[in-house]
Amino acid sequence: MSIIPAQALCTEEPLRITADDRRVLRELARRVAEIAALPIQAERARLWKALNSLRPERAMVLTTPEEGWHELMSQDDLRCEDALCRQWEWNLRWKIYRHEHIHDDYPCTGFFDVAWVVELSNYGVEEARIYGEVKGFGAYKVDPPIKEPADMAKLRPRRIFVDHEETARREALAEETLGDILRVRRRGESLCRNLLTRQLIHLRGYDQFLLDMYENPNLLHDLMAFLADEKRREWEIYEREGVLSLNNGPDNILGSGGVAHTDELPAPDFHGDVRMKDMWCFGESQETISVRPEHFHDFVLAYQLPLMDRFRLVDYGCCEPLDIKFDLLLEHIPRLRWLAVQTWANRELAAEKIGDRYVYAYKPHPAFVSSPQPDYEGAERELRETLEIARGCAVSLTLKGTLTFYNEPHRLTRWTEMAQRVVQDMV
Q1: What are the CA-CA distances from residue 64 to residues 18, 257, 370, 397 (Å)?
Q2: Do the beta carbons of residue 203 and residue 152 sit within 8 Å?
């Protein structure tokens, strides 16, 4: 499918910024530049690079508030008026907040990122999600549009439009506003998340997805093939249009948790145009926790592998325990580097399988800080036990999955400082 011309969505009017918005952004940018220049940032970057090279000096700590960010910073904290400027203000305040309140190992850099403007349509059908009390937040049910095999005929390739003109205009505005303080760069697709089963469930429903393995295997194969082809086509368009962005820097966060900084990327023949083979890929299938290994291989991994094989390094796993999948993943993913280990996984088995050949990407239990009453002693016991179990592994500790802090932001600070103390004790 061809991409429509950029002029179809752009006007020739120049983007403008008010004096007040400009003043706010420049004040914040100067603070970010001060933080980025601190020696600790380079040291953090060096330590992540050592971990990713499987020569760790210590376990690394990353805290990602995720859905809990709304309790740390809110839209009411923003002072800019223009919608785009408010996005930029949020990104700057995000860096400042992390430095001042989340004392983990995430390096603050002096980059100011301008996102590529990309529009993606649906697959020709509307997904329906049924939320609880708060629309658009928390758990939801799916009303799948593909209810019968005949509904497959409704599926269409997505329309993927890369708006070069609008992206360039935003980059020029950022350069004019902040370029003398921070290094402005375009940032496009950098996670490359291989989440085929999540998309499939939005189309087919979770219960039906599981039943299809037995009742409609051909339909399930057809759906997975369609989604895999669509993901490949999306990434190929991004590669051709220049939207892919290197994800090996000190401020790139991996999908499984942790920082992606490495000098093993890009590929040796890289000359400026980012290709899939210059990047990390993130693979996961959280929805197949209860699926037998042979079914996981046939219905999921077989469709993920051709996609992951286009990338130079792979990290795999999100919130799903990989206990019964370790052997499959280790056998079939040749450039695997990170493997996720959850608090409810078999940590001893993970340490045995991962050894010193991959990064042991552990995710501590978020309930210790996200429950009505935090349990810092329990959180510390968990970390000490895990670091002892994984002794000899290259370990990353990433706190995520935190939906709330019960409006007590200091919980995050306290957990992170505890984790840093435990890491130092266990060196």
Answers
A1: 33, 8, 13, 11
A2: no
DSSP state of 15: P
CA 44/CA 31 separation, integer angstroms: 19
Helix (H, G, I), strand (E, B) or coil at 206: helix
The token duo for 321 is: 């325990």
- Rg over alpha carbons for the chain, rounded to the nearest Å, is 22
Task: Say what the pTM is.
Answer: 0.94
At what angle are helices 217-241 and 196-204 packed, to 10 degrees?
130
pLDDT band, residue 15 (cuts 50/70/90): confident
- State what percent of residues in the chain have pLDDT above 90: 90
**Token pair recorded at residue 117:** 């403007």
Over the chain, what is the mean pLDDT? 94
> From the CB of residue 48, how many other CB atoms can be counted at a distance below 10 Å?
25
218 secondary structure, DSSP code: H
Give the pairing type, strands 128-131 and 60-63.
Answer: unpaired
Using pLDDT thresholds of 50, 70 and 90, give the confidence band for residue 310.
very high
Establish whether the linkage from the previous residue to 145 is cis, with ω within 30° of 0: no
Angle (nearest 5°) at CA 360 between 266 and 424: 105
pLDDT at 220 over 90: yes
The residue type found at 239 is E
Assigned token pair, 32: 């970010």
Task: Determine if residue 225 is left, alpha or beta; phi over 0 gives left, psi from -120 to 50 gives alpha, anything else beta.
Answer: alpha
Angle (nearest 5°) at CA 399 between 394 and 400: 125
Counting DSSP H helices and E strands in the chain, the numbers are 15, 13
DSSP secondary structure, 79-140, as one string? ---SHHHHHHHHHHHHHHHHHHH--SSPPP-SEEEEE--EEE--SSS--EEEESSSTTSS-E
Q: How is residue 121 written in tokens? A: 């349509």
Q: How many whole angstroms separate alpha carbon 304 and alpha carbon 224? A: 9
> Which DSSP letter does residue 321 get?
-
Q: Would you mind telling me the total number of residues written for the chain in this entry?
A: 427
